[in-house]
Fold this sequence. Notes:
single chain, Maltoporin, Chain A, 5-stranded mixed β-sheet, 56% strand, disordered N terminus, membrane, Plug_dom
Amino acid sequence: MKIFNGKHARNINGALVFKLSPVAAGCAVFLSALGTNVYAQDAAVSQAAQATDANGNPVSTVTVTGIRRGIEAAISIKKNSNSIVEAISAEDIGKLPDATVAESISRLPGVTAQRDKSSGRASAISVRGLSPDFNGTLLNGREQASAGDSRGVKFDLYPAEMLGTITIYKSPDASLMGQGIASTIDQRTVMPLDFGKRTVAVGYKAMRFGEHNNGLGTGTGYRSTLTYIDQFANRTIGVALGAVKFNDTGAEQFQADGWGGGAGSATYNGQAVKVPNGFKTDVQRDPQTNKGVMGILQFRPNKDFVTTVDLFHSKNTDNTKKTGLEGSVCGSTGSYDPNGVLTNATIVDGVATSGTCTNFKGDVRNHIEAVTDTLNSWGINSRLRREGWTVTGDIAGSKVTHDSNRYETTAGQPGDATNLSTISWTGYNGKDNLAPTYTTSLNYADRGQVVLTDHAGWGGGLTGNPQAGYVAVGTTTDEIKSYRLSAKHDMELGPLTAVEFGVNRTNRSKGRDQNEGNLVVGTGPYGSAPVPGTDVMVTPQSGIPVVAWNPLGSLGTVYQLLPKVDQPIQTDKNWDVSEKVSTGYLMGNLEGELFGLSYRGNIGAQYIHTNQSSTGTVVDTSKCAGVAGQACPAYVVRGHHSYNDFLPSMNLGFELPYDQMLRVGLGKTLSRTKMSDLRPGGGVSLNTSFHDGPILSGSAGNPNLEPFRAKALDLSWEKYFTVNGAKGYVAVAGFYKKLDTYVLTVPKTVDFATSGLLSAKTPLPASGPNAGSTVGILNTPVNGTGGNIKGIELTASLPFAMLSKYLSGFGVEVNHSSTLSSVNLLTTGLTVIDTGGVATIPLPGLSRQVTNLRLYYEAHGFRASIAAKHRSDFLGEISDFQDNNQLTFIRGNTTVDGQLTYEFGDKTMLKGLSLTAAVNNWTNSPFIRYAANPSEIAEKITFGRTYSLGASYKF
């Protein structure tokens, strides 16, 4: 496809290609072309008439309600923006289309969400095939702190009821701070002086979770909301208050882990046959609560001056409890777990489809992870307009504290037990360890036979320390403070209608503090203690009853702590990083005519200076065996690095006949790496299992890392229309991003003698090609060259009234995106689980195909909608059993939600009251992880449906 006839366009296999370097020169050439044929014009597009207050300020008026109100407001945001954006707008006060921000925006073109594998709710957001870390997330235009090691924001901390609009900027804008390569997601709260009168809205929704989920127990909960908006002192003072409370007792979820999906091996009648390798089945409950409070105060004494103070607080608690059984069927999981002997087997084509193995030592798991995330965000903004100038000052802060407590307990037979169990199975196919039905000779629900103990010698057996469980307690704190001063001056200078410039300073500090250790019971390596309580749980897949109990509060009563302070804990989980980012920007707004076509847009640039520093530890692994009770000697190290970036950008929108728009976005963007990657320090030890012989190997962070950088081209064609009073549009968008730099964790050959990581007492290789050498392999994140990512997005928002007035009230929203990337990452050095032996992996977060569909009807007080979301397979990120984020393959899925609302009309006594019924995850779509091959299931979690019934009242 040819884009333009100029020297910057070319054809390559029909793909959109544009010469992007140097970007600044390209923008200047384009601006010169615009200046040859321009005239001043009114840039405002047609809008609905607005009322004004005593000062002449606009006051929102509502001409439509419900679904149409939300759709048409979002269409107006998209149409009137100078950038390429997507938007979601509330259908009414406190009513985004979904209960969570992530669910709502994942319905937009090119946007998709990864579901939380504990709750099944949408959490992490990917835009245009890039992982959540590539998004900039704002609240009222200000950068927000994040809960985990990365920069990706948890949208669960932002209750949808507190937001009025969410805009996703897909093309860069010089006046926008905290941008990302993938997008910039700006969440906006309501502003009280934008409303014409006092408004109060209350709502309550009763909920049931996990319905029709294979006979598992359901959970109950509720969601209550309150919003109060008012104006005082002749509309010079405005107040908006909001509160949200959500409670979920947690439905039972079935989680099955097939140990990678591969087969085990055993000898039967002198031949090697395939047997089930192992399995892990859990029943999980995930009770959650969320409390959110919002307060906004506006003071506008006249039409030229306004000050806004906004406060936002949210607190999430999540207590995930798992009970289940795990074990190797015929093999061993530790020094106390002997290999089994296969008997009574039925062999078909080398596969033991049924059989019995002796010496089975099952591990009864009772784990709990309690997580609390607390967000506090605030801002003060003042704006003064005078004689064509607008001066704005803004100070703000955002802080997230992430507290976690993880208990893992094991129960079974002590290490010196002699009357070991047998395990039998039927229905094995040689591939799926979760397919068979299992039975055991030992009753794992009998507290007389099953005790709390180190059943398999996981702490090192007789030569190590007992490990009847594990505990990890940690806190991650992220705090951002920002200061901004900007000015805008209206003018008429060729194509320039206004010039805006300003400075912004952002100080960010983030740190993680983690303490871990073994849980010990009794005395000696075979110590044990009774399992408290009387509860029993049966996991659906194994069908084997097991003892169940809650280990919270058991430290100091049932268990004693044996601290573990080894190299990965000290270097990877204890660090502090700070950033000081200073940004100056200049942007001009454009209006004019080119080749007979009116256009509007902007051109500008940001100059960014970054000063980053970090603190970590270097561990002397020569004095540490890495086991509990033996601390690794360590000392504190610091890192520092500074660098500069110049980010030009341009957005142009050409107004075509028949209410069409052709948009072009061009610019350079960056996304900063995970803050945990910036930690200094690490450790090195002698690796005796290297394929070429012994060698020194280690791992470390990199305080000198610089951001991901990319050049971007965006094209969008949009057609808007109004038929029989209903608004709609269709759009086709294409994008190309050239990733100039990418952060990769790779094995580097280094001389540890000059790395600062090597101790004088660290043993060197005594044999092989590396004998006596200090040269070895260091796994560390580095800046490397990138690749590209490109795609196309198709969107339609169609009211059926355009076909016939008899279909008035019906409509459809549908979008589809197809995304490709040339980026392939080597798995070496990356924390990827279930690789299936593959050497390379795709770009994290990339689903090649994403489709969203929403059908709706709204008339006579009724509002009904059914929505489906589909994404294809992708590489996602989860938190593993060590509280580390790891990449994993996730199978694509389709989720379906439905909602029905009736709102009583103005002529009834119940005016303002609406009743709503909804169902989420209608098709009970599961969460499935796999090992490179989608047919090899590593973990499958089902959530069931969620039903809700609620009422809201507005007056």
